[in-house]
Each structure stands twice: as C-alpha cells, then as structure tokens.
Design brief:
The chain is of the alpha/beta class. 44% of the residues lie in helices and 17% in strands. It contains 14 helices and 11 strands. Helix 2 (41-48) crosses helix 11 (244-263), helix 2 crosses helix 12 (265-276) and helix 11 crosses helix 12 (265-276).
C-alpha cells in the first residue's frame, strides 16, 4: 500500500473515532423537577448537597450541571417530560401511569426510575356534618392536585365505589377542584372559601388537623389496602439509553439521599426546615411526620398494579402492564416490588 493511501486510511480512522466519541458523549446539563411536600425530601437533599454532581464525577463526568425546577402539579411536568425539557420528574403514580400508557412502544416512552416511597394521603374537612365520604354533598368542594387524574382523585374514586357501589367512582369528581397543596391548605382553612376539604399529605395534613374543627375522614392506606407508592421518578427510556452514566449518577444520588432520611430522622428534619425555611414546624414535629408508621421512604415500588388495574377499569388508561416491572427501568425492575 502506497504512502498516500495509508495517510487517507489513517485520516478515515481518526474521523470515525471522533464521530463515535461525539455519539457517545452524554448530556452536560440535566434538568430535574419536583413538587411540594415532605415526600420530596430526597430531591431537596440531593439539590442541597449536590449529590448528583458528586455521583457524576464518580462516573467520570467532571462537569455535570443540574437545573432544578418546581411545579405545583403533574400536567405541566408531563408536557415538559414529553418535549424533553425535563430529564427527571417527580410524578404522582396516576400521572405516571397515564404517561406510560400514552407513550409505551413509542420513541417518547416513559419509564419509572425508582419510587420515592409509600406515603399516606389524608382527606381532611372543616365541614362538621361530614363524618365519612358518604356525607359529602353539593355544598362541599374538595381540593386535589389535579381533578380526575391525580393520586388523590383516583383514591376518591376508589373510595366512592367502596361506599356507593361499582360504577359510582366518577360521581365524586364533580366535587373536586384542582389546587396545589399550599393553596389547598389555605383555602380549606379559610371560612370564606368554597373549599371545605383537602386531600393532602404532610406537612400540610398535620397543619390542618391541628386546627379546631378539622378532622380526617379518609386515609389512603385504608382505601388501597396498605402502603402504596404515591410518587416516583420518571424519565424517557431514550434518555437513559443515551445517557447511562448520568442515569446511574442520578439513581445513586437518590438512593444516598433516601438512606440518609431513613438513617437519621433528626438530620432529615433539619434538612427539610433548612431548605423550605418553614417557620411553622419544629424539629420535633418534623421527626414525628417522618416517623409516621404508615409511611416509608423506599426506592422499591409498591402496589403499582392496584393503581394500573383500577385506572384501566375506569377508562383512564388504554394499556395495563403485565407486571409492575414493565413500568420501571433497570436496576429497580430487579427489586422485590409489587
């Protein structure tokens, strides 16, 4: 082979190597979204302690930028996830299942990264005439994060069927109003608002029942038959495939934050108070919330199929996974979830 031909061959090899290097490059910026509530504490700690950045360095990515955004509801995050503006988002289980059903088998297919945990929701009311879900009437309005599609809306539908019989689930929808948890708390406690009830979780739940005349009439763990995943992290499957190191860094960071919460409730309480600047709570009150025996911080999904089967029954999703494992990416799909 003559020298010019050898030179051309070497240049071609160098060019191909460069192209492959670009193709294998992962994102330099990752965008993460969360909502309101104590259940999002792991993400708060990840942001404060720059855990994703630290884990990314361990994966060989020295300069990963992490952008954090906060939303009041899942519908806006859904659109951002589908458009690629968000890489990781904290979604309610029902919102995630809706997205999964719409995108499964497409280039935008959504999958779960891991669960946050199983946290109870409580339906609180200031109406003295309401003792159970059967007592709600036309004069009552119930604040939920998103009408018909949020976790709380679905739980109300299941509870309505339990109370009034099969096919009655959607009868409760007319009483629900979409509101963020902070706005729902304010509205429910205001005597001038039409909102008489709020389906929420801590710290909003504890603040509400501490007020005279407010009582809890429904507990999600009773409705669902035990602890169930209420929020989880979602991403596009294609994002994981294109960015395995960034994905691994995020999951490792999430597990680290979750372990911190479970290992030291006092430190976790301090973190929540520091990050949220909540002046209405104390370390003792936060430790009590974090130690709720009905709640659990865990990355392992629980009772996902309870949600999926009911949503299919109610016509909220088209497809039902054969197993909860079809909803999650590796390595979480290898856990002993349900």
């Amino acid at each position: 082979m003559n020298l010019p031909r050898i030179s051309m061959l070497l240049m071609l090899i160098i060019s191909l190597t460069a192209v492959q290097g670009v193709a294998l490059a992962e994102v330099s910026t990752v965008t993460v979204a969360r909502q309101y509530g104590i259940g999002y504490l792991a993400l708060m700690i990840m942001e404060r302690d720059k855990l994703i950045e630290k884990e990314a360095k361990a994966q060989g990515i020295s300069e990963l930028k992490v952008d954090w955004v906060q939303y009041s509801g899942g519908s806006v995050m859904n659109d951002a996830l589908l458009s690629g503006k968000l890489n990781f988002a904290a979604l309610g289980t029902t919102a995630f299942l809706t997205l999964w059903s719409k995108t499964v088998g497409t280039p935008q297919e959504m999958r779960g990264v891991c669960a946050f945990g199983a946290f109870p929701f409580y339906l609180n009311t200031r109406n003295p005439n309401v003792k159970s879900i059967k007592d709600f009437g036309e004069g009552d309005k119930i604040a939920v994060p998103a009408v018909k599609v949020s976790n709380q809306a679905l739980m109300l539908q299941i509870a309505a069927e339990q109370a009034w019989g099969a096919g009655k689930g959607h009868d409760i929808d007319r009483l629900t109003v979409s509101m963020s948890h902070p706005d729902g708390l304010t509205a429910m406690l205001s005597q001038r608002s039409e909102i008489t009830s709020h389906f929420t979780w801590d710290p909003f739940h504890s603040k509400e029942i501490a007020q005279p005349g407010v009582r809890t009439v429904l507990d999600s763990s009773v409705v669902l038959g035990g602890p169930a995943t209420t929020i989880l992290i979602a991403t596009q499957r294609s994002f994981r495939d294109a960015n395995p190191k960034v994905y691994a860094a995020f999951l490792a960071a999430f597990k680290s934050a979750t372990n911190l919460i479970n290992r030291d409730k006092a430190a976790a309480a301090d973190a929540f108070l520091e990050i949220t600047k909540d002046k209405n709570e104390t370390r003792a009150s936060m430790v009590k919330m974090l130690s709720d025996p009905k709640g659990e911080f865990t990355v392992v999904p629980q009772r996902m199929m309870v949600y999926a089967d009911y949503m299919k029954k109610m016509g909220l999703i088209k497809d039902v996974p054969a197993s909860w494992k079809d909803l999650f990416l590796a390595p979480i799909d290898g856990e002993k979830g349900s």
